[in-house]
Design brief:
single chain; about 130 residues; mainly alpha; two-stranded parallel ribbon; 7 helices; 5 strands; globular
Length: about 130
């Protein structure tokens, strides 16, 4: 999977290029990267439920629940929204909170449809210090 370094991100943002943020709306509202658009992989409620599952049942069960929640029509709808974003913003890049699981899953699913976009290494957490 391809990544965008901090230096590449800063150059990207100086050019006013877009970022697709797949964090939950609550996270996005708390802070975001300039020129970013939130099209979340999980709703606030889904994120909360997965977090509770992670704490009470562990990582494997939380991941299983996440894939179950984002499947079928829900997954297809998100893929269509993401594909539309990148059709309108072909130089766009991806992020989530740590640049890990959520943006990595999004990146992999998009790649399956023929859309290859890099994600921010370290995610919003890593680069928020610049804003």
């Amino acid at each position: 999977m391809s990544f965008v370094s901090q230096q590449e991100l800063l150059a990207h943002l100086k050019r006013g290029l877009p970022v697709l943020d797949v964090r939950a709306p609550l996270e996005f509202e708390a802070g975001s990267i300039p020129h970013s658009t939130c099209i979340p992989i999980l709703t606030n409620e889904e994120r909360h439920e997965i977090g509770w599952t992670y704490k009470s049942k562990g990582s494997e069960e939380a991941v299983r629940l996440g894939y179950q929640m984002v499947s079928g029509e829900n997954k297809e709808r998100k893929l269509q929204q993401w594909a539309q974003f990148f059709a309108q913003n072909p130089e766009g890049i991806l992020t989530c909170f740590r640049g890990g699981q959520r943006s990595g899953i999004t990146q992999a699913w998009l790649k399956e449809t023929g859309i290859h976009r890099p994600r921010i290494q370290g995610g919003y957490k890593e680069v928020r210090q610049f804003f």
